[in-house]
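User: For my dataset I need records formatted as: sequence, then structure tokens, nothing else. Please produce one.
Assistant:
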Amino acid sequence: MALYDYCKKLPYTISLQFDKNSIGTISKIFEVCDLNNKVSSHLSIKYLGYEECLTDEKISAILEKFTNLNIQKKDIEVVGFGIMDNLNPSFKNLLYLKVSPSDYLHELHNKVIFLLDGMIDLYKCHDLKNFIPHITCGNIDDETVLKQLNEEFSKYEKLYISDWFIALHTSKSDYKIL
């Protein structure tokens, strides 16, 4: 079942994939704050389209576009929790981890749009100036919990994700790109 009504279709994305153990601290914070939330093990860089339109040929074509992509990998810092403040009311309770460096992640987002021009869909609420780099952590109904989460988060040392790779992320498989 989809978290949001408009998500009944499954999207496929270009994402930064990482091992959940690299941010295991977050699970401890959820326990302290008595939340059953889960942290995703990816950071979406670009929603590409819906899986109902994804064929093996399209997967191959997308992967082919990335063969000459040259990027400098940077560590991603997790800087705290936030709740999505978006024009789409369906996001109002979406808890996420804020990440940095935002400029670097926006640059990756824009490179993917440019690289796959004509092969992908643009999403008004997620692309270009509306792109908010984040790691999804599910929903919370009580915004006062956000303050408690960030207080607990501040008790830990800085949290970095350094071991990540770029992947074409689908509901069935992750295709490692870089």
